[in-house]
# Entry
Amino acid sequence: MQQGVTETTDALWQARQKYQQGLYRQTFDILRREHGEPAQWRDPELQLLGGRTLNHLGRSRTALALMQRAWRGAPERPRQRYYRGFQLLGRRGPWAALRFIQQHGEILCEDDPHLQGLWLGHFATLYSIYRDWERSHEFLERALALHPDSSWLALEHAVILQREDRYPEAMAVLEPWLASSAPPRPVVAAGAELLLLLDQRDDAVALLARHAPRMESVELCLRLYDLLLENGERDAAAEALQRARSLVPELPGTVDRELVYREFELHYERGELDQALQAADELKDPFVVSVRERLRERRDQPAEALLPVAFVRQHHMTCAPATFVALARYWGHQFDHLEVAEQICYDGTPASTERRWISELGWHVREFEMDHDIIRALVDRGVPVALSTVEPGSAHMQAIVGYDLRKGVYKIRDPFSPLISEMLMDGAAKRYAATGPRCMVVVPSDQAGRLEGIELPAARLYDHYHDLQLALERHDRPAAVTALEQLRQEGAEHRLVLWGERSLAAYDHDAPASLKTLDALLERYPEDLNLIASRADMLGELGRFQEQRTYLREQLEAGHSHPLLIQTLVHALRHDYRVAEETHQWLERLLRLEPTRATALYSLAGLNWDEGKREQAFELYRLCACLEDKVERYAQSYFKAARFLRQTDQALDWLRRRADRLGPLSADARVTLALMLEQLDLSREAAEVFEQALNEHPRNVWLVNEALIFYQSRSDLERARALLAQRRADLPEAMVLEFEGDIARQAGDLEQASVHFRALLALRPFHTGALRFVAGQLRRDDSLEAALAFIDRQGSLNPHDYGIRGVKLDFLEALPPSQRWPQLEALAAQAGDDSRVAQAMADCALERGDYAQALRFASRVLAEAPDDHRALVISARAHLLAQDNDAAAQAFRAAIRASVDRPDAFHGLLECYPDVAAKREALGFIHRQLLEQVTFGDGVQAFVALARRFLTDEEVAAFVDQVIAERPDLWQSWLAAAHFHRDVRHLDRALECIQEGCRRFPLIPRLWLESGRLRLLADDTEGAEADLTECLRQSPDWVQAVISLSDVLEVRGDFDASEGHIDRALRRLPREGLLLGYKSDLLWRRGQREEAFDTMVRALAETPDYHWGWDKLGEWARETDRRGEALALAERLANEQESNADLWRHCYMLTDEQDQELAFIERARALRPHDPSLVIDQCEVLHRIGREKEIEPLLSRDYWRGPPPTEVLGFTAWLRHQQGDRDTAISMMRDQVLRDDPAFSRGWRLLATWYKDAGEVEPCLHASRQLVALQPGHAGALVEAAELMLEVTEGDARRAIEEEVSDYLERALARDYSDTYIQLTLLDHYMDSGHPERARELMTRILVDEGNVFVRARQLRLALESAELDAAWPLYQSVVRDWRDNNWLLLEPLAWVAAAGADARQALWRSVPDWLADPDMPDAVVVVWARAQALAGVSGDELLANLERLRRDPRRGGLFGFALEWLLDSDEIDPAIRLRLVRRHWWRLRGQERVANAARRFLAGQKHWLWWLWLRVVL
# Structure
């Protein structure tokens, strides 16, 4: 037994020695002798060696079977894994092999450097097949470092260089091995192939002739045979073929087709037709069958003609240049193949380009349709013919250099193969009928005579078709139309007419016309797969998706199972998750058929990415970008995936190297680099790349288009105009019109923009950008109905147009839901498979309050795209409004998982949870998603803003630091950090962050805006103006930036400049609601109140959701007695937008009639029945009108289907306080509501107010500070907290908080610089706390509102404080004149006068009599007259005399009682004097109850009880 094992081992050793010597037949004979037939072999090592051996003996199927069994027998062995990769490469292609080796990793066998080196070499080889040269050479270098003397690795190195078209370098790698006396077989085979590619045919033959007899390789013998036979050395070829035959072992069930076919060839070349036919009878190949039948019919015809056209090896995608160079050399002209390729070829060569270039050389070029007799005549005259063959999904250029009439074939010089090949004459005409096939004669001008007398079929038609293509290339559409008309006149029924019509339709983006021509072509050529695939693509472009899928499935079921149609179906299914499994199945099939098909890999990458397999997708995107290195979307997708996976630098370096390599050949690579740099906000470098591309390709229209878009995106209109003017003559009219319209629009010239875009629509009726602009102008200048009618007219030209349908959906959003719904139903009937329509219907249903419908349509979208963020949010909102919080939370979480950079789901998720602990858990979930998904920025900002409500500042700070550390490449990271530090009052750090952001990303307007705002907070108005000016330079129409700069100008005291800035913006944007609102506020503060009111009405009509505007309008309506107009506007807009609950709430806020209040709030709540704010509004109304019983049900757990929201619980506490139960209210708010939700800011506000009313200082201060901590950037909260703190404190306690209050009020003003109330509150605080200089500085900002009586009152205070009495009294007189029933305006200035000293008091009394005599002064002046006497210390007699004169005054005498009342209430007057007043005028008190009450108050206060009783009796 042991002896048997030893013999077996010896036999295997002996066999391996023979194998290494290339003696494969002897190897096989040893194995067969020792172990029997291959089917009996069981040992994996034996199977492996046997499989490798049979592969060299022409028995590849048996070899693969043996290697498969070897793998299954010992898959854990490193050698088996290594050869398993080769087996998969041979059996299933490189994709399967690559996946296999990647799955097993880079380390195969560290203990065996030789095997490990070979394994790494396998990586190198497979990456080279996918043209990933960088990784291929990287793995090769690692492999050679482990095993530098390996002939196999040298071979792989040469093959990799060969695939790179680096033939001399590849040969140099092999030469040391070939120089040896016995080079390995693979090296010999590869060396011979390289010699052929280098056009060293004789050397290749000599190499094979030297080593093929020495080795036992069927491959070497057959390759030698092929070369010898083509050289005409038939006897030597016969010997090589005989040796090959002798090496092939006889095995059951095998047919030696390759040998038989070569025997057929040999017999035919020798003229042995009977033997040739006998050999052909053994073969079933359609080509051989056709040739065999032709031979039987025409064996007596002349045999063949062959022109000596040399082989020129094409490089990747350079078949046309290589073919032309081969033909040129035939004519004795020398061209360099690569130089020609650089001039006419980039990712293939368009037919028009090759013909134009050759013609420009002065050569004679004519295209024509294939005709056997014509081609034969040309060849007979010594003229080879270029032939373009169009296969499914690709095209190839080669040359017809001969023919064989007996066999019925053309002799083909293919630039990919060094051997002459054959093409069936009849088969070519039939196979390529849809495209001609197109033939072309290319001869030097001095050889054009050879063509005389030969009528080239359809040559004039091809001339017209060529003219059409050239016209479209230079964007001369009229010339293209002329060429098409000439084409029709010459050959109305010829297929080129249809192809010409299709070209023009494609240029016009006229999808219906394109489909029409495709259908006409398919009527003639129903089996043409390119036409079938194109028709399917066009159906998708037209939005007819279901029809597209059905059509493709029918074609595949009918037997058209070509990879092109499978790929087209995959593309149609790609984004529909309902058929994800089917899509994967088709992709697997497609990649088995064509494992290097980039489109298939790209589709698989997209699927993997969507399924969360990001690393696998990234690998696939890279393979696509390498495999088709001139396809820009592959390069862009690779970069975007790399950026997502934090490999930005690596990918950017790759893009830069790619641009350097391809940039001189085409602008595409540089444009891609520039666009990706722009994504990284490296705009300066991006601009430099564009400039470089424009210098390299000055007449490239597409490049000019991209550059113009880029300049516009940067708001560099000057450069855009200059480029457009410079290149205008080279650009198509439509393109010029589009950019002129865009530039005019961006510059604010809307009228001129409309002119350009209407002209563009006349040329391009389906141009959605132009359509959107013109419709938008119609909506603004006419009506929404006019805009929709215009869109419908354009859409009627093609009801299936996807883009126009999208525009209509956008405009329909402005309609009330009741009007929108029928239109959406009509769209759904027309395009039911358009998910955008279902999405819009879900939105509309949600607005209508039909939650079931909203869920149904959202589910329809999610069935196709389960990660659709918008549909998930709609579903979540519907569940939330239907009080199904659990389902809502699930949907919100799914939306966040789908995209954490669309943070609209953040707040929704928190709404699902009533208590703080659950909200914190939800924030933790969002936090994890932000880190896991690697946010692109928007989610970071939203999270930081939201988290501060529920997390400690320390927790949020840790997150901000983490974001800055991990994603400094995001401008949003710096913005979020700046906002956070601003909110926690670390202004210096905030400025550092925002300035670093501006430094890194100088072309992000948002950063400049925030920098300007932060500088303003730091009182750096000069820096703020500079930053905001830069922001507006980049984005001139950004309303927030316009308003912020206006604020800066106002703060600086330049009010005219501030208003002028707003006016200029309004000239560009005359219907921008926010600008109109800001303008109205300026007008109001300047005293132009009626105009201000009217302007705000316009603002709200344009922007009904402008909540600040509604608040202002309500305030102004009360002051101008125009509440009716304000309410009428709100009602009109609410009726127009009947589903807008906010508008009904504004109606409620504007009315002062209780019945209307209740009706309006009920209308609002009917739309949002579980909106806490609306429920609270209704409860407040019910409380005011005494309908308390109706309140409790709305606050109950039953109504809310669980714990009521925090806002409702807070209102319940408020209600208890209103009902007089203060202690319960405080306890409920403090110990329940705020304990469970400490982020409830309104609760802290109410609690602080209640503590203030109760005189509890410290609790009030604590609650006020909590309010500020929760809303550090909210002006209203800051002011309320400051006022509460001032009202609850006095003395030392007040002084202790003065700076804190100043900080709050200053922050509030920084948030809203135009709010007069904040300004005046801060000014009063400055005065009260002893800082008049600050008050004066602040007054310079406020004076824009000098028409405001409260502002004039503060001017009076400042004048009194500085003893400017001459200025003070006119101010006081104007305040009294405009007192508006506000006693504060009468009395508070008297307190300021009293504080100003005796001189001021005396001076006031000297002025007041004149005021009293002024007929324009209101009766209220008597109050000042009365109190001024007291302040001046007028004697009793004088006071009595003054009062008597007043009583007798014919105009003011009626105010006697009013004056007496104020005198009696004035503590500044001596009690004795006031008693004299009572005694003198007691009898005048009858019938004047207010004066009598003042007398009683005085008497009781002075304890003059007898007088008090007497008055009670007599009155």
About this structure: The chain has 85 helices and seven strands. Residues 1291-1311 form the longest helix (21 residues). Strands lie at 304-306, 364-369, 385-391, 394-404, 409-413, 421-424, 438-443. The chain has a mean pLDDT of 87.
